[in-house]
Amino acid sequence: MSTPDLRRRLKAYWAEYDRVKAQRRQILEAAREDDEARFEFFCDHGYPPPLILPPEPEFPPECEGMTCGAKAKSSGAPCKSTQVFRNGRCKFHGGPSTGPKSDEGKLSALGNLRQFTEPYRGTDKS
After folding, report:
1. Residue span of the structural domain in which 58 resides
2. 125, part of any domain
3. Which residue(s) pair with 78 in the sheet?
């Protein structure tokens, strides 16, 4: 299977995973809202009512051990890292976060940067 097909399959897996995760969250929230009815069921039957959650999708076996594949600028050789993230790239080629997106996050990051820009206030050694 070609690399673009593997990346498409990986992307489809994560989209399905997110959809199922959202469904599970909705079912669990609805169960929390029906606490009184669940308690009555427990009192009547002696066990809690079953929660039927959709199964998580199975990770595509052909994507196991998939390499990053990003090309180096200097040599053109593909990256051989097998620790790929959701987008199919390793941590060096776009896998983890690219930084804060919201204004609050950007201000927070700027505040974290400022704490290290003050000059060193050590004791004089003279």
Report:
1. 1-62
2. no
3. 71
Beta bridge partners of 71: 78
52 with 74, same domain: the answer is no
Averaged confidence pLDDT in the chain: 84
Higher pLDDT among residues 31 and 122, named by residue? 31
Number of structural domains in the chain: 2
Q: Do the beta carbons of residue 79 and residue 90 sit within 8 Å?
A: yes
Q: Cα–Cα distance between 126 and 56 in angstroms, integer?
A: 67
Q: In terms of domains, do 15 and 42 share one?
A: yes
Compute CA distances 78 → 11, 31, 73, whole Å.
20, 48, 10
**Residue 30, φ and ψ in degrees, nearest 5:** -65, -35
pLDDT exceeds 60 at position 126: no
pTM beyond 0.85: no
Phi, psi (deg, nearest 5) at residue 41: -60, -45
Phi-psi region of 94 (alpha: psi -120 to 50; beta: other; left: phi over 0): left
